[in-house]
Amino acid sequence: MNAESPILRTVARYAIPLTMLVALRIFFQGHDLPGGGFIAGVLLAAAGAIHLLASGVGGAARVRWWRVAVLGLLVSVSNGIWPMLLGHPYMDNEFLHLGPIHLPTATFFDLGVMLIVVGTLMTIFVELSLEKR
Amino acid sequence: MNAVVLVILVPFLTAIGTALLHDRPRAESALNAVSCLGLAAFVFWLLAKVDADGPQVSMMGGYAAPYGIAFVADRLSCIMLCLSMLVASVVALYVPWTVTPLQQSHFFYPLFQVLLLGVNWSFITGDLFNLFVSYEVMLIGSYGVMMCGSSRQQVRQTLTYVAINLLGGSLFVVGLGLVYSIVGTLNMADIAVVTSRLAGPRAGMLTAASMVLLAVFALKAAAFPLFFWLPDSYPIVPLGVNGFFAGLLTKVGIYSLLRVFVMTFRQPGNELALQALLVASAFTMVVGVLGALCQWEVRRVLSWHIISQVGYMVMGIGLAADAGIATAAVAATIFYVVHHIVVKASLFLVGGIAEEISGSGRLKEMGGIALAAPGAAALFFVSALSLAGMPPFSGFLAKLVLVRTALRGAHFWVVAAAVATSFLTLLSMMKIWSYAFWGDWHDAPPRPLWRRMAAPVSVLVATTVLLGLWAQPFLRIASDAARGIVDPVDYVHAVLGPEASVEARSGVGAIASAHLAAEGRP
After folding, report:
1. Cβ contacts (< 8 Å) between A92 and chain B: which residues?
2. Is A1 a member of any domain?
3. Contacts with A87 from chain B: Cβ below 8 Å
4. What residue of B is the nearest CA neighbor of A68?
5. How is chain B split into domains, by residue range?
6. Is the pTM of this model over 0.90?
7. What is the 8-class DSSP label of residue B24?
8. Helical spans, DSSP H, in A1-133
9. What is the pLDDT of residues B192-213, one digit of tens each?
10. How close, in Å, is residue A102 to chain B by CA atoms?
11. Nearest CA of chain A to the CA of B19: how many Å?
12. What is this model's ipTM?
């Protein structure tokens, strides 16, 4: 695909934010419906792939995406430590009561999963784009 | 006790931390070493606690057994954890001198921690399916570590290793499915309770299904006839971490055989699996040592010796088929595992020092190390004699206990194989000694780097001397651990609660469970 294609760039301007919004929706519906961190991560990476096709690899290659994945792992793993500090087993679920919102700590586990998926997929996409043909 | 989970949490967090410190190799290796030493201190404390207070259990996410995933630390788990962390600590202090910048840039340290995570996990889990997950984590770590540096030879041999382990992993899942369809649970304590009351055709079906798992664990342990992948893949593992591979990875298979085939499956007919292992063990010993005798590279000789040594441990497990000597046989196996992990890791690490000094791993290009670096030669000398089973080192005692148990069970032919293998082992160690360490040294004095590598290894060598000279406490804890495996009363109580009443085994498997009978479960 030609990176300077005006059609692709125009589509990307709308498709990327829309994909990200859908990803956000699917992330939060994962609490009690099909969805969650993994699918949201895949959608976000799809938005990233559109960006790579439309604007070229230059900007995205400056980010070290594997660090995003490692950060996600840190979020997921350390999320399980929180209950341990309260004397519960590892990975037990706690609820954070923030006014009207009752947030299960499992949300942060899912957030970590999302970051892992985005980081891993974007690493693969960027490496493949940079490969000499 | 929820802190049990630390044995996997610490390597996990260290893997993340070392990955985040990727741009600062010195800080990365320092974090790696500090984490290993800290966790080593914890697991030795845990062993003392478990020895005093009985098995410690943590249920993941607070879900009750047998539905949730149990992490159980009993004596056997803690012994294995202590060994894994001892070797990991020594390796962590050894690798900063051997890891190349290229290997470091391929995420050597995070992958090593993932490997450690998988190994510790397999020792602590009390759930059969979770054991499969831990195998996969361990394998992913080991694939990555093997590929660090990505030379042509590494890529080729890792491909074989990946293929064979993918096959093993698939068989594992198939076996688990079969077992689950028969006993209806995957919690090890629960399986032990259910299978001990199993009789008739269902017991036979379970024995048949368990053969799939037997093949998986035998493949992991590199027992005959599933050993062929090992001698080609271990020599390409990066220097230093190969001590961890040699010491721990095949022993995960041995541990699984003990945990699953001696403790968990207790149906009548399970002796069949153990008897098959006894036959395989004689072949494993002899084939391994014969393979070692015709190799001309240090790493290859030592890799073949892993196989022959695995034979001794499999022999101990096989002897457990005989109910009269089951506890003694398992105790001998556990003591042998302790001895073997320490000695094998130190031999690989000293082999690495010898390669560093002479700049080659081929026996015919080496020579004179005893003159150039007498300290390294002494470390090798002690480890080699211990491996061959010479007194006063741990190898002698480990073999003595094992052979005495076999004689009590009147298994003379396997004793003959064990003794013959022992002499051939000595012969092959003499070959390394006379080619690599004996002879004249004509070059300039070797780089002083080897002293830094030798310092951590001397801890392992001191351990094998200690195990030989002051064996009583170690033999005592090994035999207590064996009792906990052969009659897992404490284990079942710790996981399922005190109402799961357990009787001592008569023959193989005789746990009667009152509350299960009341529920009308099979």
Report:
1. 61-62
2. no
3. 2
4. B20
5. 274-486
6. yes
7. -
8. 6-29, 37-55, 58-61, 65-79, 81-85, 106-130
9. 999 988 888 899 999 999 999 9
10. 19
11. 7
12. 0.89
